Fold:
Amino acid sequence: MGAKSPKPVRRLVYCFSSGISPFREDREEAKAGLEEVPGLLGEARRQGIDVEEVDLSKQDEEKRRALYEQAAAAAEKSRCKIHKLFGFRRRGYGRYFGREVPALLVYRGEERIPAEVYPCRRRGRVMSIRDFLKGLLEGEGSP
Structure:
């Protein structure tokens, strides 16, 4: 018992670009099941989770940068790695974030900073957006 359960998911922010076809060839493993994501987000809405979809091709660069900074904070907080997937900061703060590589920010409880970001690399393997959403919907049910 000792481990406390995570706070329920209250909000999901899906970042993508309708102007760019996702996935660079070297990001192939992160795209597993991407075609299922819209339906899974719809199911999350039906279960009462607030879902926001942000088309970054219709946003300015400052919005994308702010969202990436939240993703970086979430990665640090959840001890996962995102830089190989989204691009390194020194080369333009995640230049693939929400463009070639869609992203999902996960907010739990009343926290203002996301608790998690997907896709990410954890324990040597890529955790995809689809895998997170399927686990959420099957495991947690409604928040």
